[in-house]
Amino acid sequence: MLTAMSLRTPDEYRAAVAADGRTLYYRGKRVDDILAEPELRVAVDHAAIDYEVAEQPEHRELAVATNPATGDEYSAYYKVPRSAEDLLQRSKLIELCTSLGGTMVTLIKEIGSDGLFAMLRTLDGESLERALAFAAHCRDNDLAVAVAQTDVKGDRSKAPHQQDDKDMYVHVVAEQEDGIVVRGAKCHTSISANADEIIVFPTRAMGADDADFAVAFAVPANAPGLSMYVSSYSAGERDEWDFPLSSKHKMLETLTVFDDVFVPWDRVFMCREPELAGPLALSFVEYHRFTAVSYKLPLLDLLVGSAALIADMNGVAKAGHIRDKLTHLIIYAETVRALTETAARRARIDGRGIAYPDPMTTNLAKYTFATQYHHALELVQDCAGGLLVTGPGVDDWNNADIRAVLEKYFGAAAPAAERLRVMNLIADLTARDFGGYHAVLAVHAEGSIEAEKMQILRSYDARGPLAYAKRLVGID
Amino acid sequence: MLTAMSLRTPDEYRAAVAADGRTLYYRGKRVDDILAEPELRVAVDHAAIDYEVAEQPEHRELAVATNPATGDEYSAYYKVPRSAEDLLQRSKLIELCTSLGGTMVTLIKEIGSDGLFAMLRTLDGESLERALAFAAHCRDNDLAVAVAQTDVKGDRSKAPHQQDDKDMYVHVVAEQEDGIVVRGAKCHTSISANADEIIVFPTRAMGADDADFAVAFAVPANAPGLSMYVSSYSAGERDEWDFPLSSKHKMLETLTVFDDVFVPWDRVFMCREPELAGPLALSFVEYHRFTAVSYKLPLLDLLVGSAALIADMNGVAKAGHIRDKLTHLIIYAETVRALTETAARRARIDGRGIAYPDPMTTNLAKYTFATQYHHALELVQDCAGGLLVTGPGVDDWNNADIRAVLEKYFGAAAPAAERLRVMNLIADLTARDFGGYHAVLAVHAEGSIEAEKMQILRSYDARGPLAYAKRLVGID
Amino acid sequence: MLTAMSLRTPDEYRAAVAADGRTLYYRGKRVDDILAEPELRVAVDHAAIDYEVAEQPEHRELAVATNPATGDEYSAYYKVPRSAEDLLQRSKLIELCTSLGGTMVTLIKEIGSDGLFAMLRTLDGESLERALAFAAHCRDNDLAVAVAQTDVKGDRSKAPHQQDDKDMYVHVVAEQEDGIVVRGAKCHTSISANADEIIVFPTRAMGADDADFAVAFAVPANAPGLSMYVSSYSAGERDEWDFPLSSKHKMLETLTVFDDVFVPWDRVFMCREPELAGPLALSFVEYHRFTAVSYKLPLLDLLVGSAALIADMNGVAKAGHIRDKLTHLIIYAETVRALTETAARRARIDGRGIAYPDPMTTNLAKYTFATQYHHALELVQDCAGGLLVTGPGVDDWNNADIRAVLEKYFGAAAPAAERLRVMNLIADLTARDFGGYHAVLAVHAEGSIEAEKMQILRSYDARGPLAYAKRLVGID
Amino acid sequence: MLTAMSLRTPDEYRAAVAADGRTLYYRGKRVDDILAEPELRVAVDHAAIDYEVAEQPEHRELAVATNPATGDEYSAYYKVPRSAEDLLQRSKLIELCTSLGGTMVTLIKEIGSDGLFAMLRTLDGESLERALAFAAHCRDNDLAVAVAQTDVKGDRSKAPHQQDDKDMYVHVVAEQEDGIVVRGAKCHTSISANADEIIVFPTRAMGADDADFAVAFAVPANAPGLSMYVSSYSAGERDEWDFPLSSKHKMLETLTVFDDVFVPWDRVFMCREPELAGPLALSFVEYHRFTAVSYKLPLLDLLVGSAALIADMNGVAKAGHIRDKLTHLIIYAETVRALTETAARRARIDGRGIAYPDPMTTNLAKYTFATQYHHALELVQDCAGGLLVTGPGVDDWNNADIRAVLEKYFGAAAPAAERLRVMNLIADLTARDFGGYHAVLAVHAEGSIEAEKMQILRSYDARGPLAYAKRLVGID
Q1: Subunits touching B (CB < 8 Å, at least 3 pairs)?
Q2: D266: distance to nearest CA of chain C, Å?
């Protein structure tokens, strides 16, 4: 059906990341084919949503972009934003895929394009040319691209070069004629296990002493010397009745170890340029936090929707305190949505014509999301009831005799069959490991709450308010 | 300088509201000329800002509109909004005048035009024609217009017609050939004492039994039978050194009593039409809450600016907890600003081509403002210090011997002369009656916090989130 | 070692609840011997702590009481409180066992004695005599006793007698010469699966029409017609490395179905006495909420302790924002502790000489615990970092090659071996199903947040404050 | 009536502080007789409550202590606490006098005795003997005693000895045979203007370089060289109808300037002993924060009582959201009360047998009070309504014609006469300068919120929680 060279089918994506020789470990064992391991395959199938949308007629307009020069179609994720409208459309696409992903972001094109845009904004000269070429490569081959940024850091009170073990931050071991050799490890690397390519960025601003650590590059996921240790958090196969979300939707995180990995020069975007480390890291974060607040919206909608639905099924939707709790959930969800929208509408266009979301507003949205999330969980759980953690499982439900008991006793303003499903949905979302994953991500992913506060303070222009205060008392 | 017929000078406005025979009481006495009573005159001078901006070259573009048909200039406040951009400009104009007003809204054109727009959206037939004529009258004569809406209400557990004393809600006493006669009282009527005209709206939705109370009309401020009792809250003349804001900026509130006031038919917009009471009241509130969040912005800016300034003057601006508090103030102020902006950008255009701000977003903005205001006061006071309430007064400062002591002992990272002024600014803003006025208004003006929550819940479209929750568990 | 007749060994307890013919279902199957099912046995072993403490020299003083008349020793849980000091000691014993239980309450004597005390306070005449006899039975045989109170409720907008299916509330089906027959189901019944006896109480106040539902009684866990469906929430065997808490500590919840269960008269404490339903339910809640806040203390201590420990291991313990977060956790934990202590110290002694904790203070403690719990989770997760949900599992750790990588890269200010263990502790506590269980219990167990607010308002004596306000303005 | 030498009558107190030659300035002028200046006299009359209670039969038991050795009666404020019970009684006495003082603390014996107890606990040798003698002097002459502690501080980023102007901290200018000479200024000195004696303490811990500033002493209020500049905050005479509280209750704050004041050795408690500055300052704060939370209780009661009363008068007491707000106010008030009580009950007894309240619990109480105060104001204002700031004044009320209008239109579920009085009570308490004074004191008096957090963290014993966390994962 699809004729353009640059759009892959979901199965083409699956085939590309399977059995390509990448070094993957899971639950203590080497995994040769990610598709053959059911607990990992669910993450590949989940990620494939980013490819499926391009094939769905109702989503094509949002998901597919056209190169005006060539007429070629390519994934809209790789379209460099030039306007507020572009950012709004990008946000909608991220929201759509996450919505189809049961509140779990797909991320395999989102984060990579965030990284590419950051390079296009901050690099210059030959580095910029390499980045442009790599961006075209990702776009034209419709690739899944991870970004590995967070170093393992060792002693957090010390700079990279002060660490006892230099490998605590990824660094340049050698420069050769044909490329560089890198060593070290990144942690919390999302979707690397099922990506085609991995972009590596420094985690923070660097000083001159940290030159070796000021390195940015890209490698294919099967690069020699690169090993990925997939987290076993939320391991285990799951039945869909018990776990409506996590049985089908999953994101993999890896400890990503670079053991003297060779990177050819055309894949090296920064090498021993400490003055560039901060700007590149920050520019990536600017895009990535906007991605974050965009992909949080289905999660927020589900908090509202599942709380309203279960309250109704419990027969308590009209109680004053329930209405109050639903209103608070709405206020929370819609404030984040409005701030996300405003971050896009206040788009800034840099000297190269590239648009990026307003940093202060983006951080406002992210901060608001992060600091009210746990309270929102309390409200949803309050609307649902204790049955969230005292209810039956799928084996009970599948036993006809037991099911008859459950149907009799767990019905309320809705039949038990429906009510128990919604209970399980909310338990999965708020009271089991999938919920815990969301909760910890709320606090830490794409920057901590403290980082967001710092960015708000930095990006706020205090001159007007200060001048206003002074004017009112006639000083200055 | 001004040639258009429809723009008055500030002095023309002053002259119009002075000694026109209106029945005004203040501090137990009849006031014949509002300009002759210094404590009231300050409110007239403050309100005149709405006329001054039209004369100021740097503000004319925002403050003056032009009738494309006639080329006549008129106050931009009376421009009927037709687009998101119109609402954004209106918001900016309100913000400007409030900023010039030292955080106190001027309101004499804001609230009246809110009322006019509501009538243009909800009335029909002859009523609409009367409203259009009255709107043209206000615009062409550049009038100051109050809206009296809140009835005194008596026993709040009873509907209007159930009250022991029917006068607890303004109502129609008689219909005559030439007009109607009304009786009752409205409270919390802002700027009525210094307005040209007073629009009267019902305070709530009405049932058929309440037909007599479903009345809307306009009367000049000097209408026979109309008496206004100006609140003595914050009475007393004030020195500018002690009270940088409240010595110059003031809004008057009245108990507005209609003692068989005659209203000719061309000023009657609704008479015994209970089904219209709710829509008209609500439409007014939609505009007026948007006015409210627009005029709160300078207040929020001053909370941020004065806290940052005094922290700097105290020499503690770099302390971690101070930075944290300033960041919280910024988050608060900028979230309200972003929501206000979004309410305008999400403008809805009704079937008549009239724009109004998105109700849910407007209420989100208002709710966010109202529920975090008192905490913001705590943060500002925390940054300032106890000197807010233990410092010297203007008489101390004017005594050269005492001033020498104060200069020696109250300097910090800024000279005492400046630091004490900023302390007084913050005390006026947060810890004296002007501050209390702002705080109570935050909770009650333009609708209570509960009313805002109710409107959020009502205007939220829950269908998407409910459908999403159901889809994820395969029901419906 | 123990000579008293009334103290059982842990193994005697285990033997008593194993294979006694009780009707138990788990994961879709009938379970004949609870000890033979590893996922259930962990709960029996956990509950046995209540017996172990009586054998431990360092805990005997707190855990064992002596009958002054006979010199017999018995479990201190069954000592009827007569003073504030008794309540303080009871609170300490509950705290101790929960602490040994890894933050999970043992409950098998706590809740039963709460129920017994409530009966001793509210019953009269023959009912009281039966209750006294049953209390002696529990004490003298050192029994594990559950309380089943929450009915499944059906349509929550209807009273018991209005339900379409009468079985939605447990009710009397027949009165016979030798006893009564009951039918219906209770949900959220904790520790019933591994208890000796189950006390059944009504869930709420009842009206005259609800007489059939005003029933209280006790049955052995293996009573004919009684079936218990154990919740499969948090099912699955767990390794101790991955799950330091939940691998060893567990509480079972059942749907407890009474299918025409016969109860002899000496086990019937209330039968068709609706006027007693409310007082009995409330008195039980008064004791049980005090039990609740007592058993929450180790959980709160662990939130503080684990956050402080991981912050230290991460090398960030001195950061200002980390200190701030730890301080908030301390304030939370210590406020609940102080309120719990005060609830005991303000003990009320009823006309029978039985002490009960001050209701308002108990509810203050419970409310404070419940409403800040989720925010506390956010703070702990913030101190810990994203590794909570991206880290390795026990199979990784047990692979020597992988362990070497983990040791190299996951060390910080503490070796990886220790840091990863604490991460898993915190993940178990806050971000997996054990954590979700705690979180949902915080909101719902022993009464919802709304119920606590209602009790605070009801038990508050407003007369003093009202009189004070009136006196200050000279009215009344 | 009173025969004991050590108890003065209120008038004896008034006479003692009037026209004794003290150097007092108010509103730019020297005041020779504090009783002759009405705006200051109100503070003297208010403070006299501390003497009145000793004459009131119903309060004598709490207010008067007896020297067991001599049988002499003396003010219970000066009784050195030896037990938890003593601290509870002291708390009750403070609460009583503040309650009689319309929520304003009397303080003239409270703060002085806080200072005396601190000296008795921390001083040694000759210094201790002087302190004992001075304590006996205060007790036996039933004196009003202020404590001046907060230095004006100049540049807060510098230590005392680093200040450009050494006078920014009170310091020793000269040591002479008969005493010392001191210079500098203290700010926020409460009740000094109407005290007999003023104790001076250092404001913070000091290093060796700051020896000159490590000075503690006492001087009579009329000491030569001592000048007091009374703050003009809340200046102006007030009618009792408009201002039910602030017309009768007031506390004076001074800038207290020491211009080479001579202090004889028997009044010098510390001189150039920097190692003692911290312990003395801290010990004073320990007592004084306990005094603070004790005197906050009537204020909290009035927030609850006035909100409940006005809600009832408005006819909205049964509305769900009003009940919710009242419940929150109750939770706030009663949590502070319970923590205050617990701080006393957890009394620590030092090696000298002197009792002091548990520091961590005291700070918990103070922190809880301080951080929820502004939100409580919002809740009270929400219950009251906008009439708080739009209502009539006493001159309106006293005009019979106007009063008739007010009576007609401002009645609700209570007559206007009563409802308006309660509105004015709440306005005085929350929305005018008296309210602002309370609000700023909540944040700053007796130590800032940050200081309280720091003390909580310092006084918390983390060893148990840390050991618990370690034990659960088997480390250490």
Answers
A1: A, C, D
A2: 42
ipTM score assigned to the predicted complex: 0.97
pLDDT of the residue at B5:
61
- Tell me what pLDDT residue A5 has: 61
Instruction: Tell me which residues of chain C, numbers 335 to 374, contact chain A at a CB-CB cutoff of 8 Å.
Output: 371, 373-374
Put simply, the answer to whether D28 touches B399 (Cβ < 8 Å) is yes
> Quick check: A395 contacting C, CB < 8 Å?
yes
What residue ranges of chain C have pLDDT lower than 70? 1-5
Residues of chain A with pLDDT under 50: 1-4
- pLDDT for D476 beyond 80: no
Strand partners of residue D378: none
pLDDT digits (tens, 9 = 90+) for B206-221: 999 999 999 999 999 9
Q: What is the pLDDT, as a whole number, of residue C5?
A: 61
Residue B1 pLDDT greater than 80, yes or no: no
Task: Encode chain D in three state secondary structure.
Answer: CCCCCCCCCHHHHHHHHCCCCCEEEECCEEECCHHHCHHHHHHHHHHCHHHHHHHCHHHHHHHEEECCCCCCEEEHHHCCCCCHHHHHHHHHHHHHHHHHCCCCCCCCCHHHHHHHHHHHHHCCHHHHHHHHHHHHHHHHCCCCEEEECCECCCCCCCCHHHCCCHHHCCEEEEECCCEEEEEEEEEEEECHHHCCEEEECCCCCCCHHHHHHCEEEEEECCCCCEEEEECCCCCCCCCCCCCCCCCCCCCCEEEEEEEEEEEEHHHEEEECCHHHHHHHHHHHHHHHHHHHHHHHHHHHHHHHHHHHHHHHHHCCCCCHHHHHHHHHHHHHHHHHHHHHHHHHHCCEECCCCCEECCHHHHHHHHHHHHHHHHHHHHHHHHHHCHHHHCCCCHHHHHCHHHHHHHHHHCCCCCCHHHHHHHHHHHHHHHCCHHHHHHHHHHHHCCCCHHHHHHHHHHHCCCHHHHHHHHHHHCCC
Report d(CA D197, CA D20) in Å as an integer: 12
Interchain pair C338, D334: CB under 8 A: no
From chain C, pick out residues whose CB is under 8 angstroms from the CB of B324. Answer: 321, 324
User: Min CA distance, B421 vs chain A (Å)?
Assistant: 6
Distance from CA of A473 to the nearest CA of D (A): 18
- Residue D3: the pLDDT is 43
What is the torsion angle, in degrees rounded to the nearest 10, for the CA atoms of residue A236, residue A237, residue A240 and residue A242?
A: -40
For B187, which of D165, D387, D442 is closest by C-beta distance? D387
Cβ pairs bridging A and D (under 8 Å): 6
Q: Which residue in A338, A470, A472 is closest to B342 by CB distance?
A: A338
Percent with pLDDT over 70 in chain D:
99
B398 alpha carbon, distance to own chain's centre: 36
**pLDDT digits over D381-397, tens only?**
999 999 999 999 999 99
Average pLDDT for B170-194? 98
* Cβ pair D321:A321 closer than 8 A: no
Residue that has been written with the tokens 């509280």 in this structure: D245
Query: Whole-angstrom Cα distance, residue D195 to residue D148?
Result: 11
To the nearest whole percent, how much of chain B has pLDDT over 90?
96
Q: For B415, which residue in chain A has the nearest alpha carbon?
A: A475
**CA nearest B324 in C: which residue?**
C321
Between positions 96 and 115 of A, the ones with CB within 8 A of C are none
Q: Which residue among C244, C308, C460 sits closest to D465, beta carbon to beta carbon? A: C308
D469/C331 CB distance under 8 A: no
Partners of residue D102 in chain C, C-beta under 8 Å: 472
Contact C421 D475 (CB under 8 A): yes
